[in-house]
Every structure is written in structure tokens, then in C-alpha cells.
User: Which sequence fits this backbone?
């Protein structure tokens, strides 16, 4: 097994792989999956139902990437019918607090962002409760 020497990246360096990680954790599906798995292991169908609006293909692809990145584990049980569960790794858990903060910020500020977009488009902002 190869062990890499620990080093710190520089996201402002265009050659640094930190940008790949930022792309992964900035993905809306990653944010939602990390939040869902914070409650404990979940099966594919449970994750899909909790998120809503994600296709099986996209969920499969995102979960594979998260497993490859070491943020999520995939546990397969030798049962009939087959059972597979996904859970956060220690590294994935370390991402949960920043992801939760980002999700919460989005929830609290969505109305203002939409109003700003509407203004930029020359539309009248929508009054609270009428959207």
C-alpha cells in the first residue's frame, strides 16, 4: 500500500488538485448526500427518496465518486435479496459541519438571492408568501 506524505493544497494554484475536491464538495448532490448520511447508514432507495429529484444514474455516479474519494463507504451484505448500505467515513464526517452550514446559509438566503436575480432581469421582486 502506498502512503502519501501529508501536504496542504493551494486552491488558487491552477495545478493543485484541491480544485477537483472543491468541485466535488460543491456539487449539490454531494451536499445533500453528506447531510442525509449524517443520520447513519442508508440504503440507495432511502437516499434517493430523501433527496427527491435525483435520477438513479446520477445518484449511482455520485455515490461511486464519494466512495472513491473516501468520503463514503459502501457495505454489501451477503443476503437475499442483496442489501447495500452507504455511510460516512471519518473524512466524510469532517465535511458534514461545513456542508450543513452551506445548506443552511442557502435556505436562509434563497429569497434574497432570487429577488436580486429578478431585479437584474428587470422583474419586480416577489412579495413574501406569494412565491
Assistant:
Amino acid at each position: 500500500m502506498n502512503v502519501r506524505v501529508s501536504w496542504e493544497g493551494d486552491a488558487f494554484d491552477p495545478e493543485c488538485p484541491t480544485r477537483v475536491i472543491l468541485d466535488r464538495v460543491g456539487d449539490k448532490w454531494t451536499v445533500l448526500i453528506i447531510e442525509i448520511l449524517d443520520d447513519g447508514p442508508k440504503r440507495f432507495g432511502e437516499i434517493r427518496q430523501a433527496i427527491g429529484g435525483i435520477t438513479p444514474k446520477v445518484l449511482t455516479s455520485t455515490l461511486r465518486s464519494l466512495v472513491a474519494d473516501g468520503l463514503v463507504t459502501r457495505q454489501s451484505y451477503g443476503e437475499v435479496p442483496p442489501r447495500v448500505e452507504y455511510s460516512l467515513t471519518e473524512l466524510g464526517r469532517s465535511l458534514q459541519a461545513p456542508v450543513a452550514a452551506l445548506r443552511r446559509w442557502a435556505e436562509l438566503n434563497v429569497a434574497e438571492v432570487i429577488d436580486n436575480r429578478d431585479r437584474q432581469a428587470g422583474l419586480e421582486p416577489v412579495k413574501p408568501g406569494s412565491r
